[in-house]
């Protein structure tokens, strides 16, 4: 048996458990920053020997916002909690969702809308929870070079560059022309309940373009659509656009920057310009997993919170190292320069047009990890706005669904333990009732208050109103 620094320990029953956890944790460490992880694993086990499930498989999609998982693994944070974690890339969001529901994955980097949709029974029915929000912002909308050439001449300029944010109203002449030719204007997003779908729809509607409504018989959401949206896995977005199947897309990084580097497209707006500091991915697990393995769940969350802190520490001083880790083929697998183009405080819209974007990816600051009920309610309002929730519900229904899925109690237990241990500052944990309060920062100027979801829905010029339903014939 290999010597893992455990000589001299008295190996009673408890000692064997400690030794096994330590050796498992060391065996699972990545090469980066794992020094001392074995000692941390022993300490974690010795602190109570309570980790019920030390060997875990967690899923992710190849996007830069999976970073908290990669960093928790590579910097030894999982190992220091007594966890041996295997991270496994998934082919697409449906495969990832099915893996978590079916138990092939213990948890995953997940679209915020996925555990919400599963809980309310839209698509696949399952009891999933989100005990941690992984990040704020991180997406953009890109159009093909052909579309960019058609719209750029009419865009306002500022300081010799195109003025941002760019309104979707700039697409109106192009969309009209395509539709008159019998060639519907098509754009891609990553999944029907993704932030990307709702951000793209929000942007289009704010510019006066209807992105369409969902019915039971139209899972593509194209009823009454000016612009047709379809699902494409994130890494395939650039190639799908280059092939002409779609003329633009909304996706997370690095797949907008990939279009810039390949010179096939131009990002026209980042999601923080659509909704400043919007919530993005969550860490999703089954409800029964958290109930069966509470100590394991807490250990996962502590490791991920530490990773989030590391990613935002010292004004992003660790981001170059994070980019190097993410560029590995087993994580995002894109070139270093492509990932760095958005991950290090800059964002490139076109060759020669790189702008400061210090808040493009936020993982820890601004309470990014806290799973606010109001964030879940925003997703639910967009599901209702576009017909995925087919009928009206009272405000209380929205509150109940949000509280069933988003679990700030689990987050706070993990975060407060880190505060107690002096790992993160007390000021990094919010004092809140779970609601952010009224929020602005939307491209259309509409404010959102999670405590009044129906009043919020009534504000939109485009979108379902109280009492309205959708059929194949349209809205009634």
Describe the structure.
Helix content is 39%, strand content 17%. The protein contains 20 helices and 18 strands. It folds into 2 domains: 50-137 and 284-347 and 359-428, D-Maltodextrin-Binding Protein, domain 2; 139-278 and 443-475, 3-Layer(aba) Sandwich (D-Maltodextrin-Binding Protein, domain 2). Strands 2-1-3-14-4 form a 5-stranded mixed β-sheet, with helices on both faces. Strands 12-5-13 form a 3-stranded antiparallel β-sheet, with helices on both faces. Helix 3 packs across helix 14 (294-316), helix 14 packs across helix 19 (408-420) and helix 15 crosses helix 16 (336-343). It has helices spanning 13-27, 37-46, 67-74, 77-80, 93-102, 113-120, 145-151, 172-180, 195-206, 237-242, 255-261, 271-274, 287-292, 294-316, 319-326, 336-343, 373-385, 395-405, 408-420, 453-457; strands at residues 55-60, 84-89, 107-111, 128-133, 139-144, 157-158, 161-162, 185-189, 213-215, 218-223, 227-231, 248-252, 265-270, 281-286, 346-350, 353-356, 470-471, 474-475. It is of the alpha+beta class and 476 residues long. Residues 1-49 have low confidence and may be disordered.
Short description:
This protein has 476 residues and is an alpha+beta fold. Helices cover 39% and strands 17% of the residues. It has helices at 13-27, 37-46, 67-74, 77-80, 93-102, 113-120, 145-151, 172-180, 195-206, 237-242, 255-261, 271-274, 287-292, 294-316, 319-326, 336-343, 373-385, 395-405, 408-420, 453-457, and strands at residues 55-60, 84-89, 107-111, 128-133, 139-144, 157-158, 161-162, 185-189, 213-215, 218-223, 227-231, 248-252, 265-270, 281-286, 346-350, 353-356, 470-471, 474-475.
